[in-house]
Structures are given as structure tokens and as C-alpha cells.
Amino acid sequence: MDQLKEEINQQLLKLLSSVKEGKVKEAMTYSLLAPGKRLRPLLFIYVLKAYQMDYHAYLDIACAIEMIHTYSLIHDDLPGMDNDDLRRGRPTCHKQFDEATAILAGDALLNLSVNTILNMSIDNDLKVAIMTRLYEASGVNGMIYGQQQDLAFENQNASLQQLQDIHHHKTGELIAVSMQLAALIAKKDDYQYWTQIGFDLGLAFQIQDDILDVVGEEEKLGKKVGSDLDNHKSTYVTLLGIEESQKKVEELFQNCYENVYSMRINHGLILQILTVILKRVN
Amino acid sequence: MDQLKEEINQQLLKLLSSVKEGKVKEAMTYSLLAPGKRLRPLLFIYVLKAYQMDYHAYLDIACAIEMIHTYSLIHDDLPGMDNDDLRRGRPTCHKQFDEATAILAGDALLNLSVNTILNMSIDNDLKVAIMTRLYEASGVNGMIYGQQQDLAFENQNASLQQLQDIHHHKTGELIAVSMQLAALIAKKDDYQYWTQIGFDLGLAFQIQDDILDVVGEEEKLGKKVGSDLDNHKSTYVTLLGIEESQKKVEELFQNCYENVYSMRINHGLILQILTVILKRVN
């Protein structure tokens, strides 16, 4: 998995090499190559591999997904949004550079994700099919809607149902699409399974975050802990407590495993990456 | 021309109707439908018409271009960027709503421009060709590069050559691509003429802005005048004076006219829209 992450990082660097020198390029490189889990690109590649597909021709799609994820983090951290100083253990983009550069770097990464897919050596019909699903997931009815709802409930109590809706859009959409696109490329009729796995995984991931915000170590997380409490934010932990939240995470992973076994794929590969996610400490 | 603007506005509204209700949609609608010149979509449509093409099948491309332009204005106006309070005679997006909503509305418009073209009923090869050129122009080697350079020279003297480079990217790229795309759709070999016209027009437009910033009436402009002087910003007017700047604008329009007459098109239509731009008071 580490070698695959390195391969993704090398390809991200290669894609950045076409960008004109300047502060925005520096900021894009700083945030995109920050030490990270590369969860979404890895899921995309693992699903391709589970279908016995050679992923190399599609590496740029993995990179485009990571660009979209990184742009959303940069903008999320801005003073006008969550106003965070730390991300992945390092100063956030606007702290390391400045606010204007961070705004432009985010815009530039979203735009570069589009250029990246357009420039690929794959069939134009496939490009259009991939982009149609990807930019539905990242757009104003997907990830951006989740961010809007997240902000709306910043200082307001949210119900479990509302939290689930926020996470579904804010985190689930991009994780789900990473797996859906691999099935689309492999021309497999497993779309609904990956959709379900993606959204369950996204929710589990988010509840883990809520738990780590309370019990995690700042050093390992690379960001401030206890910030949800400081912000009077409703989370699974504030609504259910830690024990029930942990149960919910295990239940969601159980659903994922069941869906994985409903498909004719290399199950071992997918279980491998799910286990890494389940056991994460940051 | 007014009827065409109305048609563009109606189509923009229609494209927004698929967006989930919420503050971000309100902000997108507020900024996208603000009274504006619709210069880029009009140029796109006029060039199509000058080729005797029916523009109706391509109206969504005109709308996508306007979405990109509007997103760049929303982000440009943010406190972390130019910190402007007025735009098109009304409070800027972050003043009318809030900063977080303005950031997300800008992101959402860039993303929606992608969805809009992908959803069109035209050939996938044409979609890919159009998007490839469009998102090169709007991206980090095009418009965003211009914004970065503009910020870099905020409190620093720029030479005429440097100003020209800024305007070329910041304003010229999106104006040029509006006309290039029409030639691409019409399958005409006039690409280099429209490129030249686009960049000359972009520069003329920007110098007009500099002049209006000094001699314009705040009410007509719909934004604060004298802000370049307040910001100690180098402009054509500070470097050349008003008279020489006006001469430069006329010279650039002269170039445009000559390039227009080098092509086998309906010249009258293009002259009509160029004249409107040349005589603008806001």
C-alpha cells in the first residue's frame, strides 16, 4: 500500500509540473503532497485491482479525485469557513502562504482535476461518463451541499438524521464515487454495492473522526483535538456517547463486509484496505 | 442584444433550477443573475451567428462561460483577495450573504459549469474539445495565473509589459476562449484571428476599466471609483496618463476591426458588438 501511495504522489507531482511557477503552484504542491492517507485514490485503485484491471492507465483519475479532496480541505480551513490552523500535522494552506493564495490554490486544484481527466489517453465517451458522475458527486448537490449543511449546523443542535445527511454529502459522496468510477471503468454491474459501501464507509470515517476528536492524541492526528466541543458542535459522540458511536462504526463496517461479499471480486484486496481504515489512529 | 441577454438569463435560471435549495443556491443565483453585461456569452453567440450557425444548441456553453466568469468575480471580491463591497451596483456576494457562503458559491459555480457542458446533447468528442480549451483558459496557467500576478503587483510597481501580461491572463484568456470556442464549433480555420481579437479586446476592456476608475461615475459603474489610486496600484493610466491610454484603447479596437475583416464572416454582426464595448460607460 505504501508503494502505491508513493506511485500516486509521483503522479501528482508529474501533473503539477505543467503548472506555471508562482505562489499558487507552491501552495497547490504544499497541500496536495502533504502527508496524507490518500484514502480516495487508494480505494479507487483497490477496486480496479479487485476486478483484475490494470490501474496504470487510470492513475490520473485517482489523482483528479485527490485534487478535488485537497481543494475542499484548503477552502474548508479558510478563516471564513472553519478557520483551522493545522492540517495533516502542518500549518494549513492559508497559514503557510496567505488567504488569497489559498483561495486561488483551491480553485486551481478543482480546475486542474478537470484538465487532468480531459488530457487522459482514454476514449472520450469514457471521459464524459467518468466526469459526469465525478462532478455530480463533488458539486453543489453533493459534497458542496454537505459543506453548506455542516456550516448551517455549526452553532445549532443537529439530530442524528441531520448529521447523517451532512456526512452523506460532505464525506460520503466523494468516497462513494471513488469506488463507483472503478466499477464503471471495469464495466461491472456492481454499482449499487459500491454506492452503499462508499456511503457506509464515509459515515464510519466521520464517526471515527468524532471519536478521535475526543480521545485522540493531537500529535498523531496532526490537528487540534476537542475542537468539536469548543465549537458546541453536534456529533455522533455528543449525541450517542463514545461507546455507542464505536458500536455504530463496527456496524457500518459489518455492512461494508457484507456488501463486499455480495460481489464476484477479489475480496481479500478490499478487506485489506477496509481493515486499514477501520484500525486507523489518525 | 437585449433580447439575447434575456435569453441567456433565462437559461442560467433554468440551469440553476436543478440545484438543491439552500444559502449556496441563493448566493449563486444572486451573483449569476446580477445585472451585468454578459459580454463573454454575447461574444460567443455573436461569433456563432457571424458564421451563420444556430446558437440555440450551444446556449449552455455561453452559460458555462458566464458561470466561470461569475465564480472568479465572487472569489476576487472576498476579504482575503480584493476585499470589495460593491459589484455590479449591489453588495458583493460575501457582503450580501457571508464569507463561507461566497466561497462555496464560487466553488459551486465552477463545478456547475463542468456539469452544464457534460449534460449537453452534443457529441462527446465536441464536449471534450470544448472543455479542454475552456478549462485551459480558466485554469492555473490562464485566468488564475493572471489573478495571482495581479495580487503580486498590488503594492509594487508594474511595468507596461507586466501589466499587459496580467491582463492577458486575467481578462484576455476567458474573452479569447469565448470566441475561439465558437470558431471551433463552426469548424472554421480562423482560430488565430479570434485569439488575437480576444486578447486585444481583453486588454482594451481592462484599460477602459482603468480610465473609468479615474473619470467614471460611481453610480453608473456600480462600484467604487478611485480604488486603484487608493491601492497604489500601477495601471495604464498611472503609467501613460489618460490621453495615451485612450489612444491605446482605440489602437487595440483598430487591430480588432482589421482582424475581423480578414475573415469570411458576417462582419456587421461583430462590428455591432465591438462598438457596444468600445462605447461602454460602465
Automatic annotation (TrEMBL), chains A, B:
One GO term describing the cellular component: cytoplasm
Cofactor(s) needed for function: Mg(2+)
Biological processes annotated in GO: terpenoid biosynthetic process
Alphabetical keyword list: Isoprene biosynthesis, Magnesium, Metal-binding, Transferase
Reactions catalysed according to its record: isopentenyl diphosphate + (2E)-geranyl diphosphate = (2E,6E)-farnesyl diphosphate + diphosphate
UniProt-listed SUPFAM superfamilies: Terpenoid synthases
Short name of one Pfam family: polyprenyl_synt
Enzyme Commission number: 2.5.1.10
InterPro entries on file: Isoprenoid_synthase_dom_sf, Polyprenyl_synt, Polyprenyl_synt_CS, Prenyl_diphosphate_synthase
GO molecular-function term, one example from the UniProt record: metal ion binding
Family: Belongs to the FPP/GGPP synthase family.
PANTHER family named among the record's database cross-references: FARNESYL DIPHOSPHATE SYNTHASE (PTHR43281:SF1)
Protein name (record): Farnesyl diphosphate synthase
Organism listed in the record: Longibaculum muris
